[in-house]
Amino acid sequence: MNHIHQYCVFSALMQGFSSDGATVSDILSKCNHGLGTVCSLNGEIIIVDGEAYHFTPDDQLHKLAPTDRMPMIVATDFQPTLTKSLDALHMDTLKEALHPFFPAKQNNFIAVRVDATFRRIVYRIGGPQVRPREPLLELAKRQTVKTYENITGTLFGFYSPPYTNGICVAGFHLHFLSEDRRAGGHILEFEAENVELKAAVNTHVHLEFPESEAFNEELMQPELAKDLHLAE
Ligand SMILES: [Zn+2]
């Protein structure tokens, strides 16, 4: 059985909450794949095969230390139940490629991994905040966007159903890690070939909330979640 372990909710990031956090060692004790961000929203995290990597906005890769904290992390002990080899796959055809999970599992959370050669891949790296509680949409205005051609690597992330937006990011939320461990970030578009696609339906979601007072300083505004896809 595949379970999701999530720390914090995406609505909190929209309002700039980025302190506290689950430790890397805690998450890696339960999970081998995932995505998230670091304190002050300084870049993107991807966890692949039990290793946690952090990309900063200057396009550098760092390996996270066991004591590092992640104010937002969505992770899973990934045990794929669907595996396919495909000649080609695009962002737009991903849902279709995940047949029979769509529509049979359309109201579930689905973990997705893609190993491929990317003819073209576009990703972004956000942050960092320049002041405490700077909202995510402000950071999005100065995010780094990178395009690579002919690069091999791995995408990992989740499909979250529309009714969960705000707690999660509705739709596909995928991060990238190149095979040479030099490039990666939050995926905007991709065109892949020689694809191995793996996926699993998650039967449980374990959601941990920050315990600090800062988490409750501002009432979270649900209407802000409609712009989550622009920022996260
Ligand atoms: Zn992301």
UniProtKB/TrEMBL annotation:
<dbReference type="GO" id="GO:0047605">
    <property type="term" value="F:acetolactate decarboxylase activity"/>
</dbReference>
<protein>
    <recommendedName>
        <fullName>Alpha-acetolactate decarboxylase</fullName>
        <ecNumber>4.1.1.5</ecNumber>
    </recommendedName>
</protein>
<keyword id="KW-0456">Lyase</keyword>
<dbReference type="InterPro" id="IPR005128">
    <property type="entry name" value="Acetolactate_a_deCO2ase"/>
</dbReference>
<comment type="similarity">
    <text>Belongs to the alpha-acetolactate decarboxylase family.</text>
</comment>
<keyword id="KW-0005">Acetoin biosynthesis</keyword>
<comment type="pathway">
    <text>Polyol metabolism; (R,R)-butane-2,3-diol biosynthesis; (R,R)-butane-2,3-diol from pyruvate: step 2/3.</text>
</comment>
<keyword id="KW-0210">Decarboxylase</keyword>
<dbReference type="Pfam" id="PF03306">
    <property type="entry name" value="AAL_decarboxy"/>
</dbReference>
<dbReference type="GO" id="GO:0045151">
    <property type="term" value="P:acetoin biosynthetic process"/>
</dbReference>
